[in-house]
Write a structure and sequence with these properties.
single chain, 6 helices, 64% helix, mainly alpha, extended
């Protein structure tokens, strides 16, 4: 049995790239990244889904710019001085 799942173009392109990088098909890549459902972790999966901001993810997917590669992002972030962890600790300590 098979099903059709509509995906935004940007999400499908990202899926194709991830699958190609791992040497699998998109369907196999998805299957490999799904958690195994068992009676012991089914409740944990339900809880996990409760905190996911699905509206944000939809917005992010629609605004994604596939022309920007991960390498470009890494290069841009490498120019930011300091360490993020230091900023987080400083902000936490201010409270």
């Amino acid at each position: 049995m098979s099903h059709k799942l509509p995906l935004p173009d940007s999400v499908f392109r990202a899926l194709e790239q991830a699958a190609k990088a791992s040497g699998t098909t998109p369907a196999d890549w998805i299957a490999a990244h799904l958690p195994e459902i068992s009676p012991t972790n089914e409740e944990a999966l339900r809880f996990h889904d409760d905190w996911i901001d699905h509206d944000f993810l939809k917005t992010y997917a629609s605004e994604a710019d596939d022309s920007i590669s991960l390498e470009v992002v890494r290069q841009a972030m490498a120019k930011i001085p300091g360490r993020l962890v230091d900023d987080i600790r400083a902000e936490r300590d201010e409270r």
